[in-house]
Amino acid sequence: MRVYIPARPDQIPTITSGMWEPPLGFAVTGPLLDLIDSDDDDELAEVVLDVAAWASLEDLGAPLRLVIVAEVSRSESEAAPDVSPAAVRLTGRIPTSAIACAFMDEAEAGDDAAGAAAGDEDAADRLAERDLLWYDASEIAHLG
Questions:
Q1: Is 96 contained in some domain?
Q2: pLDDT digit string, tens, across residues 34-52
């Protein structure tokens, strides 16, 4: 199962060490499919990426949106519809071999990220218009 995990840039050393144990991620789940009338895998992935990106700001207090994408077995995840229709609780470590890629804001988005996290709707709108940058798993260690 592909899981989109919100993170903070200061967690990158732990993420790349193979010792990272995030409690929550987001995925295409049954409850999410019940809400979204689409069978387009790319569209569903974009929705989940967006939810995880905002969670990195709102729930983790990250200075920039950061999402780590990993493959986990269904036995290592459990739907958490009480948190979000796309949420999954994760158990265990995320090995570096399970990480597919990362998405992160460019540094220039910092002011808008801070404003959005503080409730500034204009900053949130500007941030929503920004594309997250894609990074291969081999590049993640250099993001911090």
A1: yes
A2: 888 888 888 999 999 999 9
- Residue predicted with more confidence, 37 or 53: 53
pTM across the whole model: 0.94
- What is the residue type of 34? D
- Domain containing 82: what range? 2-138
Number of folded domains that form the chain: 1
Distance CA 14, CA 127 (A): 27
Give the closest residue to 29 by CA, choosing from 69, 68, 66, 78.
78
Q: Are 96 and 16 in contact (CB under 8 A)?
A: yes
Asked whether residue 143 is assigned to any structural domain, the reply reads: no
Residue 144: inside a domain, yes or no?
no
Beta strands in the chain (DSSP E): 2-6, 24-26, 66-71, 77-79, 87-90, 99-104, 133-136
Angle at 11 between CA 5 and CA 17, to 5 degrees: 95
Cβ within 8 Å of residue 137, ≥6 positions away: 96, 99, 100, 101, 102
